Amino acid sequence: MRAPFGARLTERVAERGPLCVGIDPHPGLLTDWGLTVDAAGLERFALTCVEAFAGEVAVVKPQSAFFEAHGSRGVAVLERVLAETAQAGALTLLDVKRGDIGTTMAAYAQAYLAEGSPLAADAITVSPYLGFGSLDPALDLAGQTGRGIFVLALTSNPEGASVQRAVDTTGRTTAQAVVDAAAARNAGSVPLGSVGLVVGATVGRSGLDLSALNGPLLAPGFGAQGATAADLRAVFGDTLPAVLPASSRDVLRHGPDVAALRAAALRTGESVAQLL
């Protein structure tokens, strides 16, 4: 029986530092690396990233959409990325942002969180905007299998504000309701709960109260997307020790050389460790 994700993440961060590196095989990056924009180029890109990062960083985050765009061959590459990353010691966070209801959500949970599924990761991202309760199949299965869930709470895209910052009759924002629901799931977990949140590193002083979360905070946007150390302090304040900054393009632009990619990830990790 594997340990809960929150405990495994705490251990891996202590060993390797608090950094999540994304594998985002965007067509533009494939071209920049001199690769073909097809399944063969995707495979070369993704496995180069695994070689560079999986033995060094705490968490590797493949973006599922860029693999799915290549059909069954792309999904087969993703399966290999998940397996080889795990073998090298990094935790896998599959960025799928799934969110649905009933049996459909249960099927997503089986795909990404069930024992024996070739797409199972250590953790996945999900969207709560069909209601936090709609995520129960994923949350329940993740709890049973020792996996984690990162729930979108407050993202940096401007379109998200109309939903995430909407206020209910009690004066609570939708994002805060998501935070509170995740905190309830994590109550009593030691050393850290397995239900995390995604909060953009560039959202500024959001007014979110994250103090009771007792779970990890994935902070995309560090580096090329503009977030600085000062931004992380402004957004997360006293909860900085639970933050897992995520960097993708700022590291990936150093490819295709494995040594250069690894060095870029290590530099980023050192700068994050000094901050947190």
From TrEMBL:
Sequence similarity: Belongs to the OMP decarboxylase family. Type 2 subfamily.
GO BP, sorted A to Z: 'de novo' pyrimidine nucleobase biosynthetic process; 'de novo' UMP biosynthetic process
Pathway it works in: Pyrimidine metabolism; UMP biosynthesis via de novo pathway; UMP from orotate: step 2/2
InterPro entries attached to this UniProt entry: Aldolase_TIM, OMPdecase_AS, OMPdecase_type-2, OMPdeCOase_dom, RibuloseP-bd_barrel
Keywords: Decarboxylase, Lyase, Pyrimidine biosynthesis
Active site: 97
Catalytic activity: orotidine 5'-phosphate + H(+) = UMP + CO2
Domain Orotidine 5'-phosphate decarboxylase intervals: 18-264
Organism in which the protein naturally occurs: Kutzneria albida DSM 43870
Name the UniProt record assigns to this protein: Orotidine 5'-phosphate decarboxylase
Keyword Lyase belongs to the record: yes
Annotated EC: 4.1.1.23
Molecular function per GO: orotidine-5'-phosphate decarboxylase activity
